[in-house]
Amino acid sequence: TTRVNYNGFKANVNLGGKIPLGLKRKGLRIVVTGGAGFVGSHLVDRLMARGDSVIVVDNFFTGRKENVMHHFGNPRFELIRHDVVEPLLLEVDQIYHLACPASPVHYKFNPVKTIKTNVVGTLNMLGLAKRIGARFLLTSTSEVYGDPLQHPQVETYWGNVNPIGVRSCYDEGKRTAETLAMDYHRGADVEVRIARIFNTYGPRMCIDDGRVVSNFVAQALRKQPLTVYGDGKQTRSFQYVSDLVEGLMRLMEGEHVGPFNLGNPGEFTMLELAQVVQETIDPNAKIEFRQNTEDDPHKRKPDITKAKDLLGWKPTVPLRKGLPLMVADFRQRIFGDHQEGGS
Ligand code: NAD
Ligand code: UDP
Ligand code: UDP
């Protein structure tokens, strides 16, 4: 017998080796929460190209219809305006759970809403996964390592996180989301997958989300000085979005729960990043130092041995290759067709 789950009707049926007409699956049915956002929309593009049916669930807090508009009219695509803090009834095979503001400016805007999204939102999507027997992937973050005392960060490291700081709604929220995922896995047999994503950049990032790559690129294009916070010696590792999407899909399709670090181990100080932006956009761009924000992690670099060994994944796009792709998109969105101030 085969277990079938067709539009909510679950059954063990003897199909005699044949799938009856009407039950034949054309691709998978997949929910992407946060699918109108930066990472989510790139993931949706890959799933649609693979032939899956995709339902995007998004409240448009930071996401934009423009990011998925090119799929409107395709019968395999649906877009639902919905806040994951509220329960949701759907029938699908897989849930990619990305809904959550990701940039510090956005997640600090309403910290209580951020933590509700991480905790209640993730609980709802796990409850959904449990009810329909769907596989569930959580996009956690390198921020679960806090201001790390181990470098580079391995998945077995438990982190150094401030529970009462201004970042806690996000990093403690994601830690709780990971806990919930593991408890639904152990307690309710939900097939879960956990990705810990390191800083990712690429086309469709919000232009004014305050993240360092989007800030520097927008500033250089607008002929404004690049704002380096603190002494600029803090480090980050920047991953191009297509590498991340490939990693997320391998993780979802594979047999390992994780958590897996997904990031590019190439480590840059913020001053080095400013230099790469100067080389790419405008060698004469000025640098301006600003006071750093509270609780800013000093360094961050993923150890990706586990993802290499178990998922056969590693990033392939270095910063100097990926940045120009993002610059082209930002140039288009900032200046439109006329290149005022652009070069
Ligand atoms: P994003 O802000 O572009 O996308 C998040 C999406 O979630 C947006 O479309 C937003 O409207 C939606 N959303 C937010 N709250 C919601 C809610 N309550 N209900 C429904 N939808 C909601 O951010 P992103 O960079 O694409 O991040 C996607 C995921 O990846 C997030 O979970 C984030 O924490 C994680 N992540 C991203 C990075 C990165 O560098 N981009 C790093 C680590 C983790
Ligand atoms: N939930 C949901 N969609 C579903 C099933 C559950 O949104 O299809 C929500 C439900 O409202 C609840 C949460 O997920 O708040 C956890 O559900 P679960 O069944 O695990 O727990 P319980 O409802 O027993 O507290
Ligand atoms: N940063 C900076 N200039 C900016 C924005 C950020 O120097 O205009 C620094 C910030 O202090 C941090 C690093 O860049 O050390 C990465 O910040 P971002 O907000 O992009 O991501 P996160 O802190 O979540 O890694």
UniProtKB/TrEMBL annotation:
Keywords, ordered alphabetically: Decarboxylase, Golgi apparatus, Lyase, Membrane, NAD, Signal-anchor, Transmembrane, Transmembrane helix
Domain of life: Eukaryota
Domain NAD(P)-binding: 32-324
One Gene Ontology CC term in the entry: Golgi cisterna membrane
Designated name of the protein: UDP-glucuronate decarboxylase
Main location: Golgi
Topology in membrane: Single-pass type II membrane protein
Signal peptide: none
Cellular localisation: Golgi apparatus, Golgi stack membrane
Family, per entry: Belongs to the NAD(P)-dependent epimerase/dehydratase family. UDP-glucuronic acid decarboxylase subfamily.
UniProt pathway annotation: Nucleotide-sugar biosynthesis; UDP-alpha-D-xylose biosynthesis; UDP-alpha-D-xylose from UDP-alpha-D-glucuronate: step 1/1
E.C. number: 4.1.1.35
UniProt keyword Lyase present: yes
Function: Catalyzes the NAD-dependent decarboxylation of UDP-glucuronic acid to UDP-xylose. Necessary for the biosynthesis of the core tetrasaccharide in glycosaminoglycan biosynthesis.
Cofactor: NAD(+)
GO terms for MF: NAD+ binding; UDP-glucuronate decarboxylase activity
GO biological process per UniProt: D-xylose metabolic process; UDP-D-xylose biosynthetic process
